[in-house]
Amino acid sequence: MLTKEAILPLVNARLNRVLLIAQAALPEHQFEAFRRLILDEFGRAGLLKDLDTVLGENRQERHGMGRTT
């Protein structure tokens, strides 16, 4: 079963590479804005929240009885 702990290192490795490329390609003020946006999207308010929702629902479906009526 996939877990957040298995997914996050893969995402973070690619995210670091994207940020490194952006830093090389963008002027400093644009890079800082891009970095804030990317970290928000992939951080607690974005991807992490979505993973918690998706993986939490999957666990509930597999381990719970759910509605029987």
How would you describe this structure to a colleague?
By secondary structure, this protein is mainly α. The protein has one domain (4-58). It is built from three helices and no strands. The protein has helices spanning 4-25, 28-42, 47-63. Helix 1 (4-25) runs antiparallel to helix 2 (28-42).
Question: What kind of sheet is the major sheet?
Answer: none
What's the pLDDT, averaged over the residues?
Answer: 87
- Global shape: elongated
Structural class: mainly alpha
- The share of residues in helices is over 70%
Order of helices and strands: HHH
Unreliable residue stretches: none
In total, the number of domains comes to 1
Keywords:
69 residues; 0% strand; elongated; mainly alpha; 3 helices
Write the layout of secondary structure elements.
Layout: H1 4-25, H2 28-42, H3 47-63
Helix pairs in contact: 1-2
